Automatic annotation (TrEMBL):
Protein name: NAD-dependent epimerase/dehydratase domain-containing protein
Any one Gene Ontology molecular-function term assigned to this protein's record: UDP-glucuronate decarboxylase activity
Lineage of origin: Bacteria, Candidatus Staskawicziibacteriota
Residue ranges of every copy of the NAD-dependent epimerase/dehydratase domain listed in the record: 2-102
Necessary cofactors: NAD(+)
Pfam families xrefs: Epimerase (PF01370)
Length: 175
């Protein structure tokens, strides 16, 4: 069962959509941390890849960026183009089961910062603020049903998606 209001809201929404399935052909996807260019990269609504790319882009080589939590929390992230492809396959199918659309590659926030810093060609230090929200300790997308039923899985690596996202944010900041 969910351990937060956010989780309950998602579960309640799924139940509501399933009730519509009695009369309409409804498809339900559980999206897992979708990211990419054109997304919000400032403020609390920004996803970690965009927010961290923003912090790294603004930092000078050798500077320290603030990290919410201890950086050991883990997530899986799915690039937007893969999400669109998975959603299109789901919508074109007759599947009425709830399917996860995401990546099953788990990564820590610390490792993500290191990847982004490498893309930027910078050495970046980390200052941890454990008073800030960090969410659940770890969350990963189980794509077994999506792979078996839709024959779909993400194609774009995390590194490629982060590179595209970082470049877009860097261009926004420099324009």
């Amino acid at each position: 069962m969910p351990d937060s209001e956010y989780g309950w809201e998602k579960l309640f929404s799924e139940r509501l959509y399933k009730s519509y399935d009695q009369f309409y052909q409804v498809r339900i996807a559980r999206y897992h941390n979708i990211f990419g260019p054109e997304g919000t990269y400032k403020g609390e609504r920004a996803k970690a890849p965009a927010q961290l790319s923003h912090k790294v882009a603004e930092a000078k080589d050798g500077e320290v960026i603030e990290v919410w939590g201890d950086g050991k929390q883990t997530r899986s992230f799915c690039y937007i183009d893969d999400c669109i492809e998975g959603t299109a396959k789901l919508m074109d199918s007759e599947i009425t089961e709830v399917l996860n659309i995401g990546s099953d590659r788990l990564i820590s926030i610390n490792n993500m910062i290191d990847i982004i810093a490498g893309i930027a060609g910078k050495k970046i230090g980390k200052a941890y603020d454990t008073t800030k929200p960090q969410g659940v300790r770890g969350r990963n997308s189980d794509n077994t049903l999506c792979k078996n039923i839709l024959n779909w899985e993400p194609k774009i690596s995390l590194e490629e998606g982060l590179s595209k996202t970082y470049q877009w944010i860097s261009n926004q900041l420099n324009s």
